[in-house]
Amino acid sequence: MQQHSLGALAGLKVVDAARVLAGPYAGQILGDHGADVVKVEGPEGDECRGFGPPFVNGSSAYFNAVNRNKRSVLLDLGQEGDRERFFAMLETADVLIENFKLSTLRAWGIPDAKWFVDNFPRLIHCRITGFGDEGPYGRLPGYDAAVQAMAGLLSINGDLGAEPVRLGVPVVDLTTGMNAAMAVLLALQARHRTGRGQMADVSLYDSAVSVAHPFLTNYLHSGKVPRPSGNRHANIVPYNVYKTRTVALFIAVANDRLFTKLCAHLGRADLPADARFATNRARVENREQLEEALRQTFENTDGERLGPALLADGVPAAPILDIEAVANSEHARFRGMVVRSPDYTGPGIPIKLTDTPGSIRLAPPTLGNTVLAANDTVFMP
């Protein structure tokens, strides 16, 4: 494991009682930056321990990627004695992350989600749900792909006229996890002033709707229903994949200066001189004509030479790499975004702090690898 000084959240005590992805990812973010995170699991364990293959030390790689820097305590919260031990942990905890069903809480004698902060006034209670506990969709189960569908994301993903396509990565769960971690930090900042904790209500649905950009805002201001656009951008042209004689390149040109540079490399100085393509607004309005001209030009170009030349000139031109190429890239290694060690192999820490850097101190825990002490606390002194 990496050896570092205390992280930015050293001393923060977190009970991570969430399952699967969004909540555990939030707990891992806090743990990466020094928090003492205790993962509470039932006798069967978090079900994503079985989301494989591949498996490492009995748990799936999927589980391991969002549960490092934690210890595991096994509690059967359906049993009154274990619930009391769980509540005893909350007496000294700063943060609780959970995604229990409201019906489950009530079966445990907890009338509503506000009960936690009412009974543990300094606690930051981060509650993660699919759609919230109230409202037309309130209490519905939340799964990444289903929420993508209900939040409109499938309707705008893929090629026009083709079947709707789920975003390949679980973007809703991961975004919700990031929002949850941010919510915890916001609530902690407020507690510095007030001395009181509060509940952070974070839902998959809200997170999904919040990232439907720019399609949602475009609809709200135009009344036009967005449709799938493949790799195109609704508001920027050129912004697409272009095939060359050798490799495909993703070109993302966000202003007129870059468009002029791109055309100079392509030997098409006539395009930015054409009033139809001189500004981004004009290029969007005349998208089809410009795209056809660019397709023909790129097809006669050596992309292996053009891509590096464009990048060197400041024009975004990206080769389309597969995951193997990313995992083995020098830059991913340089940035510490792929970790390979005897104790842990997985993604790195994306947030780099200069004075209090994050670190990987603990491998993902085996089920119940930490035993509650006699006084029911497992937190570090």
TrEMBL record:
InterPro entries (UniProt xref): CoA-transferase_III_domain, CoA-Trfase_fam_III, CoA-Trfase_III_dom3_sf, CoA-Trfase_III_dom_1_sf
Enzyme class: transferase
GO molecular function: transferase activity
Keyword Cell inner membrane carried by entry: no
Keywords (A to Z) from UniProt: Transferase
Transferase among keywords: yes
E.C. number(s) listed in UniProt: 2.8.3.-
Protein name: CoA transferase
Species per Swiss-Prot/TrEMBL record: Achromobacter veterisilvae
